[in-house]
Amino acid sequence: MTTLTKLTSDFDFLTGHFDVAHRVLQPTGEWKEFTGTCTGRTHFDGGVSIDEARFAGGYGLSLRLYDPADENWTIYWVNSKTGKLQPPVRGKWTDGVATLYGEDDLGDRMVPVRLRWSDITEETAHWEQAYSSDGGETWETNWTMDLTRRTTEPPPLDLPKVTGDFDFFVGSWDVLHRRLVSPLTGSDEWREQSGSTSEAYTLFNGAICVDEVTLPADGAHGMTVRLYDVAAGAWSIYWISSRRGVLEPPVHGGFGADGIGVLEGPDEHEGRPVDVRFRWTTGDVPVWEQFFSVDDGATWESNWTMTFTRQGE
Q1: What superfamily in CATH does domain 12-150 come from?
Q2: Pseudo-torsion of CA 192, 247, 226, 117, nearest 10°?
Q3: Could you tell me the superkingdom of the organism this chain comes from (predicted)?
């Protein structure tokens, strides 16, 4: 088991279940009030915070990543209606208040946005969103959430299930790694390592899959966030290292009728541009495999496999 050094506890307060009172500013100037719930958890011993919000008609996901280099947080939002990452906000905590800035996509235009967390106690918290129409000189609050801790898990939403592609992966796993020591060099030297574990779960009734894996050889943890794009009918998969606290470039794709998942995208390896392919083989003992290509996908070199055995079996 790889033990991480705890770098932050900024969002540990959000771990658990909450009732949420929403107030949203309407175009008429009136405020609309409604209620919902959310459930939060942390990864990387506090370096990643995730919460799933539930409200009438859908889910929302906040993904918060702590960058140890500059002690800033980057926060992404995902709406279950699209399954796509929205543009991030970025900022940090000062004197008990988190203030983060970015741009929000309103469809026809981008608008400056400010998010704030404040009034944090063991049982309650306050969040608010504001837009600016003058480049950040002034701000108008348009959405607030007041969270109150609850003792029971909120009920699930009664919404149609759009995918169950990664439901097979939910649970606790022992992981056997097999890695090519020097990819793209012609070497055929592989290194195997056991002692790794993974914990996986789904959100949005299967349309998001998250897992955290221990990497003892690297002295780190890794985390994968998988988002299902409803319109495209495809997955986007993002990798996060506990060392960096940033989303790596995604791969995109899906599962065929044979149950094999293939996803591809551009990346870099040691400063060299590469195309990356992930391949998932499902079943009682799932296998994930990574490939690199340097000839625009004409040929692929396998460089890493993870074989998952469910714990207790």
Answers
A1: Calycin beta-barrel core domain (2.40.128.20)
A2: 130
A3: Bacteria
